[in-house]
Amino acid sequence: MEEWVGQKWHHFITRKADHSHPEAEVRLADISKRLHTLLRALTGNEVLDIQPSPETWFYVRQTSTQKLAGLGRHYTPVWRSHHRLYVPEKVAFLPDARLNESLYLWWALLASQMPPDWQNWLVDNQTATLRTLQAYPGIRTTWHNLTQAVIRERPDPDALPADEAAQERAILQALLDPGSVSALPPARFAPVPVHLWLYPQFAEQTAAARDASEDEPGHRQPSEENQPQANAQRKRAERTDAGKKDGLLLFRLESLLSWAEMTKVDRSQDDSEEDDSAVADDLDVITLSKKGTASKGLKLSLDLPAEAEDDIPLDEGLRLPEWDFKRQAYRQDYCRVLTLTPRHLGDEHLPEHLQKDAQKVRRHFQELRPVRYWQKRLREGDEIDLGAWLDFQTARQHGHADGEPAVFSSFSGQLRDLNCLVLADLSLSTDAWLGNRCTVLDVIRDSLLLFSEALTASGDTFALYGFSSRRNNHVRITELKSFTETYNDAVRARINGLKPGYYTRMGAAIRRATQLLSKRPAHQKLLLLITDGKPNDLDQYEGRYGAEDTRMAVREARMQGVVPFCVTIDKEVGDYLPWLFGSQHYCLISNPHQLPARLPDSTRN
Q: What is the mean pLDDT of residues 63-82?
């Protein structure tokens, strides 16, 4: 009974203290796609990457009801770093869902006009507001409606002490007349967060925390493979220093049962817990000590094998540019692309489990092989059609011949003038297992073999290459079959001997493949990319940098008459593949085991 009463009281007092509007709630996940599209149309290529912001504690005045409920001091601020805008995962500040949705757009536009160097929170937000209204006049009505709605949700200055009332009136004036307030009066408490404005200090704190964490033993590069899936639930984090005072520690014994209390001890880590993620879900606040956790393993990057064991290089390396979207310019001769052929070969024969599928695709693709035949009784042609000539002479002698005679024949037929280059991702992630049957690389091997069987049956000219990378000075292009080579036992041995490589510098690989394809005399040139994830490498080739370079490489290919098409088994394809290749130039195969059977179909049309 006591527990039931406590639950009812908690629900009642929480509803009374919560000033949000759940009925008008808008979630970032529901509008992120439309928001990114609209922002790109308004601001061009320099669009901020929008990410969820963590909840943060503010030292603001609480009402008596909020004190009872333990609410009123936790808010989700809006702030930005260099290339990211952090906003709440859900917005229910205002009673109208349309206004809550408009807040997301306003934050993004305001962030694009925010001065790069913060000087004064109050002044900079007013300056950015004026710049936004000047740059986007059409947003003025929405801004006016948002301002009025935000003011109605703010505390009444008449109900506040004198110092806080003066502070609140200054904020209201700055909201209604941006640029009219140059200083914020001091007060005992901080003002209630202004939902129309951005906060700079969170970006600085996060950057400092990130820089500090890079020196800790447990730090990992963001581009490392096999990262655990991110938890969708966000936590508020505080960074504190570990206590270093020796002596007797006094505590209540019942506090031993509380996960949410941190006891500062002068050691880096307690015994390892197997259920760390479950414990983290139960915490209200995750407190991070400045002392690093004990290392559980050595941090090693992938080293290149010895020359005697590595693949055989076919050239000394080709220098190619790379697109730097931050500077909006190419880094000339930045990437060194090596062409290699596999040193270690596999079985020369087609695997037994592919024999039946190979017969099927050969039978289907033989129907696409051009059939040449004689067209007869033509008015123009390559040779004289003797049968038509005799018929014409007979008709003329009997006076039945009329008009120009059709007495020629021509040898013709439909010709598939197609050259295709398959570029397979051979990064370390392809060593991941798909269930208990095979790895991603096993599926790619089978796909390349069936693809070769299909295009050999259709008579099309094709080439097979793989790629991986280790920073910009070592991009590896593995030649499995060139355009001039026939599909034979040696090609099958190279495919069956494939092993996982390093990382995925996709832009350089696409540029090299485009060079090879653009030299071909065919009318149709298809670049078929097989991958299991996003572009990444050990250096800055991560996130937007890698995506922008890949997108630029795809554009360059199209300008040279090459049609890039991506086949992926990455289930978290999201928006990045349509953005990179176009909505009609990629294919997601949800079941990786279907890749060998479906890959040849990409060339049928």
A: 69
Average pLDDT over residues 324-341: 94
pLDDT > 70 in the chain, percent: 69
CA nearest neighbour of 53 among 153, 201, 171: 201
| 432 burial level (CB within 10 Å; 0-12, 13-18, 19+) | middle
Q: How far apart are CA 223 and CA 472, in angstroms?
A: 14
CB 487 within 8 A of CB 452: yes
- Which of 315, 317, 310 lies closest to 336 in space, CA to CA? 317
| Residues 292, 298, 301, 306, Cα dihedral to 10° | 160
Q: How far is 7 from 393, CA to CA, in rounded Å?
A: 108
Measure Cα distances from 373 to 292, 382, 386, 407, 413 in Å: 77, 13, 17, 17, 6
CA–CA dist 89, 410 (Å, integer): 69
Which of the pair, 541 or 598, is modelled with greater confidence?
A: 541
Report the candidate in 439, 469, 602, 590 with the shortest Cα–Cα distance to residue 527: 602
CA dist 599 to 258, 453, 567, 586, 592, Å? 55, 12, 8, 12, 11
Q: Is 305 exposed, middle or buried (0-12, 13-18, 19+ CB in 10 A)?
A: exposed
Helix (H, G, I), strand (E, B), or coil: what is residue 368? coil
Q: Which residues make beta-bridge pairs with 90?
A: 27
| Closest of 333, 297, 385 to residue 511, by C-alpha | 333
At 232, which helix (H) or strand (E)? none
Mean pLDDT over the full length of the chain: 77
Taking a C-beta distance cutoff of 8 angstroms, is the pair 365, 600 a contact? yes
317 contacts 337 by C-beta, under 8 angstroms: yes
pLDDT in tens, 112-133: 887 767 778 888 889 889 988 9
For residue range 234-246, list pLDDT tens digits in order: 455 554 444 545 4
Q: How confident is the model at residue 259 (pLDDT cuts 50, 70, 90)?
A: very low
pLDDT at 101: 87
468 beta partners:
476
Q: Which domains does the chain have, with CATH numbers?
A: 2-199 (no CATH), 312-366+416-603 (3.40.50.410)
**pLDDT over 60 at 229, yes or no:** no
Distance separating alpha carbons of residues 470 and 288, to the nearest angstrom? 33
The sign of the dihedral angle between the CA atoms of 451, 452, 455, 456 is: negative
pLDDT at 141 over 50: yes
Contact 460, 415 (CB under 8 A): no
Write down the number of H helices and E strands in the chain: 17, 23
